[in-house]
Amino acid sequence: MPVLAAAGVVLVLALVFGPSWWIRHVLRKDGVERPDLPGTGAEFARHLLDEAKLDHVKVEVTDEGDHYDPLDRAVRLLPQHHDVRSVAAVAVAAHEVSHAIQHARGEPAFQRRFELVTKLIWVRRLATGVLLFAPVVFLLVKAPLLVGLQILAGMALM
Length: 158
Description:
There is one protein chain. This protein is mostly helical and 158 residues long. Helix content is 68%, strand content 7%. The protein is built from eight helices and three strands. It starts with a helix and ends with a helix.
């Protein structure tokens, strides 16, 4: 029975973390400088926005992860996607610009996602708190199983 439980835990962890691991792997692999590309991720994003007649949408560099900010009307890219000529930079820029286009068109799926993100920000804060207090809980109760469950709960909430 413990083997089945361990296999179940491994399967759940693979389902939860596998896709993001794979995306990071592909972005790292395809993030190498390509001098043969005609522009950086930021230049490509600006080109796509101009083609879509979204001149008012800014393209900015950020340290907080690639995203489109509908409140500030800005496509924000990490330095490795903003300033670099790579396949990854172009792909990420195109993805974030697509959110700006969805927003401009008033697509209902984009609006629902935006509402969900703004309403559920407290879940991410809760997850951060749960993970930060794991060492404190361990010091107080000295139960590794409880701390393990707490860490799993925090990761699941993320």
